[in-house]
Specification:
The complex is a heterodimer of chains A (about 450) and B (about 400). Chain A has 18 helices and 8 strands. With about 450 residues, chain A is of the alpha/beta class. Classes of the chains: A alpha/beta (about 450), B alpha/beta (about 400).
């Protein structure tokens, strides 16, 4: 019997593969570095606030949030989740955190990286860098890791102004000044911890590289506004890591992102879409079910192209910081821009959730979305808090409907693939209805 | 004929059953009432501007219906309940609201509240997460911004003398609450955990001076009481907010007294003291960010140390609970948290490690802020009390 090889429905970017491989190498690279005595830090995503500083201090970085996604994707996570549950962590807490507790518990028990750990595992840290940005789990988790890991914790501060408060006179300068002071305290802490001084030239170079990486990555995502959209969320999720988890040499990531830009631009110029016969253009919110990424392929078979996704994982809207000589101020401006870059636009329409929610409104319009797939995470408040608001705003302001499919980033038991696909079929009729409604209301798409 | 005005605990119960009644009367007399969420907004500042602070709380007996449309079910049910009441008009009497960055859900709900309820005055205080030097300075800047908005609201500048008086007034109230807790040290305690919650919720519903006067009446009344019958267990209650007597009543209906707590309608809101500082804001910053013991604030032990010793860290974070247990002679600890409360949830295994380490028997209960769902917990509490009794 001749079996016909099924054609992949998402036209994956070829430039994605080396970028992804470089990311996956992170774990082995850090384990090897650790073996020769280089210090390792486990880091929360900190949106480039701590990363350049740590890298300039020659600390190797691994990101347990990313590792949670890796464990979910390869199926190891369930073992770690069970261990976390057995150790008394409530089951409704962050899947990434619970995965990490299970991993760390095993590591403590064995005195080494657990043999089942995918991609070589996470090397033992000398430092945990948590973050006050966006969610409580991302600093409480590392505090709770003290059960298993003897490393000290530093929690990075990041101001979280309200939209109204952020636009008041002096608010911007105040926030930047706070961040710069905080970064100086952080550097003092690191110098004491490592017994060495900061290399300021290296820090300036690292900062410059990361800003460049994010600018190219931003431009790639801008190209996705084209019809048909040249890049699907599937590729976004594979490649965001080099920006969000900037382990390794940022110059390598920059080159790989530039290659990706060229490929995406070529597709735009030649009207090549990521999905053949793009029928529906969608936004995806928030994090995907890492254990079930094939759902993007199945939806692509129906002509669904996910053209944009969650604000939190996108790079900031570029600002020119090239004239800023103090690298700490430059870091602060870059990270703060990521957090508040949409606030000014959000103020006039009184969309006070300037991050998380408002960007969807802007993107649904500029990326011309027909619908949104909202993925409330049963173990993540941060990725879920705003989704009812998003659903309401998209429908009532832009006549863009949403499909809600509850699930989880790590725990596959919490996501119902079959049910989501059934709902998706029905949702197409709703998208068709609202496409007509938008036209009648004078919208551009 | 003059209407008899109730006093002491009788008045406390009336206020507990109808919290907004008194502030609505004050509003009718021309006072402005400002709602606040959690314990981080600076009450002293509101008082100094002649504004009446009124704590926004939930109602665990009221099914959440309207909030479903704008806040998902997998977030803190207490905060969902607060928003639900707001959407149902139960906070319409407020002249404004002040929120703070207490936790992730609290922060996001502040923005959602602003969108859906359009309060005439609304301010968000971005409380930092740590006690780093930069964070303390940042909170001070935040309080200056808060002051500016209140000056705009009231049309008057902050009077420093009144500000200092307000700080003293709130300190006096905190000291009297601490005196009330002293009456829980004898065995049996002179005031129950149930009554204590009612008292504290009444205080959170009144202007500070009026609350203090009521508190003085309560203290006098309780001191005159004949001691009730002794019970087997003396319990320390830790965890997320308790703004309804149901859980405490359930525990105290068994052979136990809650003699001390670590919750935010409890010691967390009243066991500090604002120091007199040259700039009053410095004392407030220390009180709100350093002294309040909510796990939402990250505290690291021995910053800069090469290694962290787990039990040293636990002692730094939870040592005050051992002191509470010793001073109030608690022989067991009930840890409780609402489902989906991350900041408390992450504490649980470490907290249990610490309590085991110092020899304090403990049990963890999780609930969903629903009175009718408390029944299954009764059996667990009963079993725990038998173990420690």
């Amino acid at each position: 019997m001749v079996t016909e090889k099924k054609k992949k429905t998402i036209n994956r970017l070829q430039s994605m593969y080396p970028l992804r491989a470089n990311i996956d190498e992170m774990y082995k690279r850090v384990v090897e570095a650790s073996k020769v005595g280089k210090p390792t830090a486990w880091c929360m995503v900190n949106w480039w606030e701590a990363d350049p500083i740590l890298k300039a201090m020659d600390i190797e970085l691994v990101y347990p949030e990313n590792y949670g996604a890796v464990c979910a994707a390869v199926g190891t996570a369930q073992t770690y989740l069970s261990r976390s549950d057995a150790d008394g962590f409530p089951t409704h807490m962050c899947g990434y955190a619970r995965n990490c507790f299970g991993y760390a518990a095993r590591m403590k028990e064995l005195g080494e990286i657990p043999p089942e750990a995918p991609l070589g595992g996470m090397a033992k840290p000398v430092l945990l860098v948590s973050s006050g940005a966006l969610c409580d789990a991302r600093y409480k988790w590392f505090q709770a890791l003290g059960r298993y890991v003897e490393a000290p914790v530093w929690t990075m501060e990041l101001p979280h102004p309200g939209v109204v408060e952020s636009q008041k006179e002096g608010a911007y300068e105040g926030a930047i000044a706070f961040m710069v002071k905080e970064l100086r305290e952080f550097i003092e802490f690191l110098e004491k911890l490592l017994g060495k001084k900061m290399d300021w030239d290296k820090l300036a170079e690292m900062t410059d590289d990361l800003v460049k990486v994010n600018r190219v990555w931003f431009e790639i995502n801008e190209l996705r506004k084209a019809r048909p959209s040249p890049m699907n969320s599937r590729d976004f999720w594979s490649c965001m890591n080099a920006s969000l988890y900037p382990s390794g040499d940022p110059k390598v990531s920059l080159k790989l992102y530039q290659d990706m830009y060229n490929e995406v631009k070529s597709r735009v110029d030649n009207h090549i879409g990521a999905v053949e016969n793009e029928k529906y253009r969608l936004a995806f919110a928030e994090l995907p079910p890492w254990h079930d990424l094939k759902i993007f392929d199945e939806l692509a078979e129906r002509g669904w192209n996910f053209v944009v996704e969650s604000w939190a994982y996108h790079p900031p809207k570029p600002i020119d910081t090239s004239q800023v000589s103090d690298p700490l101020r430059r870091i602060a401006m870059h990270t703060y821009q990521w957090l508040t870059g949409y606030f000014q636009d959000a103020l006039a329409p009184r969309e006070y959730m300037g991050y998380f929610a408002f960007p969807y409104l802007e993107w649904a319009r500029t990326y011309q979305c027909d619908g949104a797939l909202l993925h409330p995470l049963l173990t993540c408040r941060t990725a879920t808090n705003h989704l009812m608001l998003v659903q309401d705003r998209l429908l009532n302001k832009l006549k863009v409907p949403s499909l809600v499919a509850e699930g989880d980033i790590v725990d596959l038991k919490l996501f119902n693939h079959a049910d989501t696909m059934k709902k998706a079929v029905i949702f197409e009729e709703i998208m068709d209805h609202y496409k007509q409604a938008r036209r009648e209301a004078g919208f551009e798409w | 004929m003059a209407v008899a005005v109730s006093k002491g605990l009788a008045r406390v119960k009336e206020i507990y059953q109808d919290r907004p009644r008194r502030v609505k009367e004050l509003k009718a007399q021309g006072k402005k009432v400002i709602g606040y969420q959690c314990v981080y907004p600076t009450l002293e500042m509101l008082t100094a501007f002649d504004l009446v602070p009124y704590r926004i709380l939930g109602d665990m007996q009221e099914p959440i219906t309207k909030a479903d449309a704008c806040l998902p079910t997998v977030v803190c049910p207490f905060i969902r309940s607060c928003l639900d009441l707001g959407l149902k008009g139960r906070y319409d009497f407020l002249d404004g609201v002040v929120f703070s960055h207490v936790c992730d859900v609290g922060e996001k709900t502040a923005h959602i509240w602003r969108i859906y309820l359009s309060p005439a005055y609304c301010h968000f205080i971005d409380v930092p997460h740590t006690t780093h030097k930069a964070a303390l300075e940042q909170l001070k800047e935040q309080l200056k911004e808060f002051r500016k908005t209140l000056e705009e609201l009231t049309g008057k500048k902050l009077n420093e003398a009144k500000f200092r008086e307000a700080i003293e007034a709130h300190n006096r109230q905190r000291a009297l609450v601490q005196a009330l807790y002293e009456l829980r040290k004898p065995d049996p305690p002179l005031i129950t955990g149930t009554e204590t919650i009612q008292v504290l919720m009444a205080l959170m519903s009144l202007p500070v001076e009026e609350g203090t006067q009521l508190l003085e009446e309560v203290l006098a009344e309780v001191k005159e009481r004949k001691p009730p019958a002794k019970k087997m267990a003396r319990v320390l209650l830790w965890g997320s907010i308790i703004d309804n007597v149901a859980l405490v009543e359930m525990i105290e209906s068994l052979d136990a007294n809650i003699v001390i707590d670590d919750t935010c309608v409890g010691t967390r809101a009243y066991f500090g003291h604002v120091a007199r500082t040259d700039d009053p804001l410095d004392g407030l910053v220390d009180y709100y960010l350093v002294q309040i013991k909510c796990p939402r604030t990250f505290r690291e032990t021995n910053t800069g140390a090469l290694k962290k010793d787990y039990y040293t860290d636990l002692e730094n974070r939870f040592g005050y609970l051992k002191e509470y247990a010793e001073q109030w002679h608690a022989n067991g600890v009930i840890l409780q948290s609402m489902k989906y409360c991350d900041i408390h949830g992450y504490e649980v295994p470490s907290m249990k490690d610490y309590l085991d380490h110092v020899g304090l028997p403990n049990v963890y209960l999780e609930h969903d802020y629903n009175k009718s769902a408390l029944a299954p917990l009764r059996t667990r509490v009963q079993a725990f009390l038998e173990v420690i009794g």
